[in-house]
Amino acid sequence: MEASAGSTIAFPLIAARDGIDEALGAIAITFPDGTGPTDADGTLIRLVADITALAVDRARLASTVTERSDWFERLAHTDPLTGLANLRTISRVLELEIARAGRQASEVSVAIFDVDDFAATNENAGRDAGDDVLRAVAAVLAGSVRLVDTVARSGADEFLLVAPGSAGAMVAQRVLDGIAGLPPVAGRPVSVAAGVARFPNDGTDTEAVLAAAQSALERSRTGGRGEVETTGS
Questions:
Q1: Quick check: helix, strand or coil at residue 137?
Q2: pLDDT on residue 6
Q3: Where are the beta strands (DSSP E) in 105-179?
Q4: What tens digit of pLDDT does each residue of 79-123 get?
Q5: Structure letter (DSSP) for residue 183
Q6: Could you count the other beta carbons within 10 Å of the beta carbon of residue 68?
Q7: CA separation for the pair 123, 108 (Å, rounded)
């Protein structure tokens, strides 16, 4: 609807979607003193307002589509509970790091962390308490690793660290030290076991290195709470 006052003419920017009109703003033209819009001016300004409203609406739609696409992309690569990378992402990272290390004759460390007595926490304190434990462990992991490292939630109560170089055991111990400082959740202490393996010493591909780290983790579980076990131990 047209609104004019003196030498100014304005038209609203209206977008129609699903049969509903939405006002997006307005476009106004001010003419010099002593002049005013002609009928041709009004027609042209109305046309510009309609085109502008269409452009603004399409831009908003494109932005929504982009944001939704980004959200789905993040969802595909992250664990929704902890915000860490998921198993799919860390598996790809490990493949790439091992390939790079093979080319450069360097090393890659892999650490698997398993939350102690997680099933008992869920059973006795409830699933919300279990989720709190996972989020607390994830926060320590994210804050303890180096910028070149990648951490992920790789299972129900397991986390995986990929650390370029040979410092995996050192990083894993720093993680366990941080977790040892966590307050109890639902009256239960929080601790994890950790197993560490290295490429190429403990395996020449992803499956072999992961198997070696898993074997070290099994030994760690039998050694007491909050222990790091390496393949050389």
A1: helix
A2: 54
A3: 108-115, 150-153, 158-164
A4: 999 999 999 999 999 999 999 999 999 999 999 999 998 999 988
A5: P
A6: 10
A7: 37
